[in-house]
Amino acid sequence: MSERLPSHNVPLLLVVDVAIFINHSGLIELDKLKSFTGKSEAYIRSSIAICRMLNIFDDSNLVNPIINSLGKTPNKESKMEVIRKFVQEYEPFLTFIQYSLNDAGLDESARKVYISYSLIGKDYRFLKDLFLSWGVAVGIFTLSDNKLELGNIIKSQVTKINKLDFRLDDDMAIRIHIGNVLGADIFSTLSPAEIEELVDSYKKSETDARGSIECAGRAFEDFLRRSANSVNVNVEKQNGIGQIINALYNNKSSTGLLDKKIHSKHTSIGAAIGDIRNMAGHSMEARTMERWTLSSNCGKFYIEMVLSTIKSIYNYIDCGTYDY
Asked: What is the 3-state secondary structure (H, E, C) of 197-226?
């Protein structure tokens, strides 16, 4: 589904004010919003469009509960903290950062995102300016010599993730790391739910290995189901990672000939991912009635293994390449 860009690049603080007003009034009343904010109708409509882009509220004007937590008169710091959460969860914005950090120019990055996400209205140059204003406003990055420079805290957290030190709570750093591992093209194909599961997996990996593995396992299963749909393999009756993996490998064409959609190595790796997920999800082994103890190292490496396998299967299906 295409998404229309706003007509104006309005300040994020105005977007929050509009969201707060609508949250408390329950209605979108343009005249009242104009009086409340002191801004033109075009600015109000653009603010509403950005609210919808960022999932601050949906087409039914149902406002995200996080906005309610701000109350009626939040200070600037609280507003920016909340709007940053929505900005950094917006997939096209994250993909723009990924392209830019991987040496694509800002114009090229914006053009690729504009086309990849089927955005409409304005053009990719407007999108570039929009994303740059967002990132600078909420402190995710600065601009230096027409290039993005990540904030110091995010940069240090990304370094820690790369060293398998997951003592962090910076959501943005985790998303950037996931994009670094997968690459912008693959990252842009993930669903919001899959990304959230992967982010939660990283956050839990140090203190809750079992929960971390379950999150990553769910993301992997969802990815496999989408992959199966893309190659016309029906997995509606398959339960769990192992069965979906087998269905992809043992697929037969309409003539009854074997038409494997993934490599045999993928079945072995996928089976291992499924087994580890079962170790985390099941309370006790059926035969021995013993419970697996899972270390933080297990949680850390499991999520990395899941990401590498997602990338490998995607490249095999889409490009026919043997990468891992």
From this structure: HHHHHHHHCCCCHHHHHHHHHHHHHHHHHH
pTM assigned to the model: 0.72
Q: Mean pLDDT score of the chain, rounded to an integer?
A: 89
Each residue's pLDDT tens digit, 219-257: 999 999 999 999 999 999 999 999 999 999 998 888 888
Q: In the structure encoding, which two tokens stand for residue 210, read together? A: 């079992």
With beta carbons less than 8 A apart as the criterion, state whether 321 and 266 touch: no
* DSSP 8-state code for residue 258: B
Tokens representing 33 are: 């919003």
Distance of alpha carbon 205 from alpha carbon 301, whole angstroms: 9
What is the spatial distance between Cα 316 and Cα 310, in angstroms, rounded to a whole number? 10
User: What are the CA-CA distances from residue 164 to residues 177, 181, 202, 205 (Å)?
Assistant: 11, 13, 10, 10
User: Other CB atoms closer than 10 Å to residue 171's CB: what's the count?
Assistant: 19
Position of tokens 């008169």?
73
Amino acid at 307: L
4: which strand partners? 120
